[in-house]
Amino acid sequence: MFDFGRLKKKFLATCAAAAIGFSLTFGAPATASASLAEDLIAIGISSAALSTQINSAVKHYNNTDAGRQELYGALTQKYGVNEDPTYNVMLDRIMANLTKGVAVVDKTVNDKPYKYFISNDETLNAGCAMGRVMMVNVGTFKLVHSEDEIAAIVGHEMGHGQKDHAAKGQKKYLQKYILANVAGAAVGATIGGGALTSAITQIAFNHSVAHGDRKQETEADTLGMDYILNTNYNPGACAAIMQKFVEMEKGNKRSAMEKFFNPSDHPDSDKRRDAYVKRLYEYSGKKVTAANGVVTINKKNFIKVAPADNMSSAERSYFILGNLAVAFHKGLNKEEATVQNGIVMLGNQPIIQPAEGDEDAYTIAERLNSIK
């Protein structure tokens, strides 16, 4: 007699290795074993039947309210829900602001609102599963002290959500690593509610984001900044958070922090940072950029900021870059730089509030007027 329980256990393990994605996971998916393929064929599962059930399960979790609620419930149960009021109020505010920003670019955000929560996980991480079910670890709020940077993290995940990357990844990996091994199997009865359905469900309940496609990661980065640019958040935060990751990674490859949305299948943090900087340069009309903590305007050094607010000089410089890029994009560089309540302003756009170690606001404003 065929050992159905053994097949179920093997199938679950193989699917989990092949398809569990999410920002927390890294490493290449494993291929299905020959013995698994033989087992599937032995009970008469065809590749077409397998594909049909996979598509049905993905559709359930990605598109139906019931499936989305099931996935949300499973994730909250597995990771716990952190009720810290300060963090939850902040995340609610970020989601409200970003949803408005997303709607400018993609109005479908209003048709399927995000389900989100803060987990009890202490690592710096976030992820968006199928059905726009999003989790942000409490560790993110403890390790990142800028709301703008957390918004950049969440905006990236919303980029995944808006493009259904999780659902596409689910189908892609299961079909590539499982279906390919059962091709040519005789058409027979499907497992139905048994091992196959259980396997797909298990994958869905383990954050089936499948971040294995660098094109998707680049798309999520691009969309994340699109959304940020349609909010009041500083777009320089996208580059700033990448700079933070670069600094955290030094001498600490594959560390316990689990490298927020930067597993081995993602582009390197420094390259992603540089891509954001390039985009800000273009957004400013090719007038403003930054590197190594130095902000330049019209190819002239504007300022090298001091480290402050739990940020290095380089990380903080990208916030200055973001403010300047917005000001130049709006044409505010035609107005005079002034100092208001200790803040250097360009028109109505704040540029920098000097911290200890910076030059004084009036010196900075005078230089800005001379090179803008």
Describe the structure in brief:
With 372 residues, this protein is mainly alpha-helical. The protein has helices at 4-19, 34-42, 47-63, 65-79, 85-105, 138-143, 147-162, 165-177, 195-204, 214-229, 236-249, 269-283, 313-329, 361-371, and strands at 115-119, 126-129, 133-137, 288-291, 294-297, 300-304, 337-340, 343-346, 349-352. It folds into two domains: 1-235, no CATH class; 236-371, no CATH class.
Keywords:
372 residues; mainly alpha; three-stranded mixed β-sheet; three-stranded antiparallel β-sheet; 14 helices; 9 strands; disordered N terminus
Tell me what you see in this structure:
This protein has helices spanning 4-19, 34-42, 47-63, 65-79, 85-105, 138-143, 147-162, 165-177, 195-204, 214-229, 236-249, 269-283, 313-329, 361-371; strands spanning 115-119, 126-129, 133-137, 288-291, 294-297, 300-304, 337-340, 343-346, 349-352. It has 372 residues and is mostly helical. It folds into two domains: 1-235, no CATH class; 236-371, no CATH class. The strands form three sheets. The protein has a three-stranded mixed β-sheet with strand order 1-3-2, sandwiched between helices. It has a three-stranded antiparallel β-sheet with strand order 4-5-6. The relative contact order is 0.12.
Number of domains: 2
Tell me the number of helical segments per DSSP (H or I, 4 or more residues long): 14
Separation, N- and C-terminal Cα atoms = 81 Å
Percent of residues in β-strands: 5-15%
Average predicted local confidence, pLDDT: 80
Order of helices and strands: HHHHHEEEHHHHHHHEEEHEEEH
Strand adjacency order, main sheet: 1-3-2
- Globally, the shape reads elongated
Round the Cα radius of gyration to an integer and report it: 24 Å
Question: Poorly predicted ranges (pLDDT <50, ≥5 residues)?
Answer: 1-37, 180-193, 254-264
